[in-house]
Write a structure and sequence with these properties.
homodimer, alpha/beta, Rossmann fold, 7-stranded parallel β-sheet, two-stranded parallel sheet, 8 helices, 13 strands, 35% helix, 17% strand
């Protein structure tokens, strides 16, 4: 199949491209490279089934040759306000990727009678009041809050995907992605796994904000890609409804720090800092993956130890 | 001042135009007339301070002469799935008015260094779990629900307005409008006040769904316009935050029916029907107007009796 991947130069997007190429699909990546990197695709550049177009999907683009599948993955995705790649620094680009980008990508799918998949996010649940989060939980998101440029853009994108499905009969899929980590994350991404690994590989103590008891659910990239791939090619009648893909196993920051220090042989330990940043992640977010299990036969397979080991190897080469 | 009003041919928009013209402003209306009507502006057509452009604000438009204020009021707004003017029948247009329309209108405000006001909605609170709703309540909205084309479009619009305010320094205002009624509502709008008045004026019994104990808070159009006008010209430093404008007095459907039957002299009474429609309004929604009281010195002044009397007069002329 000929598959268009918007945001294909990003962390998730580039791994998706690897999988699609491995399955012998033809892949066309659209990416404006404001948060993605062409380094992530360097190994695919000369592949006969791969092509790259530097373009912002928030602006229209048209394809003459048939497209069979559109994966709309383009968006800034790091919540880090200190990173130039974080969505707090790119508010209007982020809103546009969610609204205009989704509209343009849906337009391509409609014109080509192609299947469409949106990568949405656990951020649609905001700072959740119920745990774990099922897909029918409507979330706790402040429309004018400091993360609203991302959360509301993704919620809007979901609403528009459903409108195209219901009104125009486009064959759509929505995946809500929880915390994911792995090779090719930006070294300066700002989220905890890259931060810890960079500190550990430099022999520094790992910075823990607050008590260190706050938990995250970390999904290794290969598990995530497997889930999205199954969702994309599932033919269940209800498959246009959102599906959570993430790891339901919770790990707190102290445990994570201890594993990373052990795997890297870092002896500098940890350093505590006060919590209380404006844009701090919610204290807790954990997927209910019943739907993914039942509909896709999917669940995460890769242990945190194994996933972190591969990620650390990749970071070593890039540091 | 030269004031651009998107959606100025709508129910709320046309009353806003009347007020602005009365205050000796120059008014330019943009409206694509898919849910608005040029009849609402017929009396202004030849006024020296008034002009009309038939245009869909979801597509870009540029102004050479200085614009001082942009009021972005354009959107389908009736939840009625049976009306051709209801947003359930116009899902993609509604999403675009919220996202593309707001973006284009903000672009005009930014280019002209104009003040900007978004008419948002109590629908951002969805089916609220707390009563009454204060502006800091984040709501209970299903991003893929049957009303999401409107609710998520308005939530997105608010997020984009805040992004333009915070990133580009645009001088913005957001009003969250609760149930409003008055002259010029579409006869076939589908909401309860026009439905009841049309039935009463035809001598039919008024249709009550379910028990008739569900309440609404009805604000008369003149009260609403006064609130928006004060918000627009307030200079408080915190005025860019959303402000609820609505009537906190709750009225149940039986009471409303009884007032309308009395004022119209309709002796046909009421007719009960089962409730349970998919798109039924939430059981209850009521504004906390503390912010409007404290910041704007505003509260509703017009009684339901007086407001309904004027509305009935207007409906009589049009039926």
């Amino acid at each position: 199949m000929r598959i268009l991947v918007t945001g294909g130069a990003g962390f998730l997007g580039s791994h998706m491209c690897d999988r699609l190429i491995a399955e012998e699909h033809h892949v066309i990546v659209l990416d404006n490279l404001i948060t993605g990197s062409s380094d992530n695709l360097a190994h695919l550049r000369d592949h006969k089934n791969f092509s790259f177009i530097q373009h912002n999907i928030s602006h229209p683009i048209y394809f003459g040759d048939k497209i069979d599948v559109v994966l709309h993955m383009a968006s800034p995705a790091s919540p880090n306000p200190d990173s130039p790649y974080g969505y707090p620094r790119l508010p209007i680009q982020t809103l546009k990727a969610g609204a205009f980008g989704t509209h343009n990508a849906l337009g391509i799918a409609r014109a080509h009678k192609a299947r469409f998949l949106l990568t949405s996010t656990s951020e649609v649940y905001g700072d959740p009041l119920v745990h774990p989060q099922r897909e029918d939980y409507v979330g706790n998101v402040d429309p004018i809050g400091p993360r609203s440029m991302y959360d509301e853009a993704k919620r809007f994108a979901e609403a528009m995907v459903m409108a195209y499905h219901r009104s125009h009969g486009v064959d759509t899929r929505i995946v809500r992605i929880f915390n994911t980590y792995g090779p090719r994350m930006r070294l300066d991404d700002g989220r905890v796994v890259p931060n810890f690994i960079c500190q550990a590989l430099s022999g520094q103590p790992l910075t823990i904000h607050g008590e260190g008891k706050q938990t995250r659910s970390f999904c290794y990239i290969d598990d995530l890609i497997e889930g999205i791939y199954r969702l994309l090619f599932s033919e269940l009648p209800e498959i246009h409804l959102p599906v959570n893909i993430g790891n339901p196993t919770e790990t707190n920051m102290l445990e994570l720090a201890s594993i990373i220090n052990r795997l890297t042989g870092n002896t500098a330990g940890i350093e505590r800092q006060p919590s209380g940043r404006v844009l701090t992640d919610p204290e807790r977010r954990r997927p209910d993956i019943t739907r993914a299990r039942e509909w896709l036969g999917w669940e995460p397979r890769i242990s945190l130890d194994d996933g972190l080991r591969s990620t650390i190897e990749d970071f070593k080469h890039r540091l």
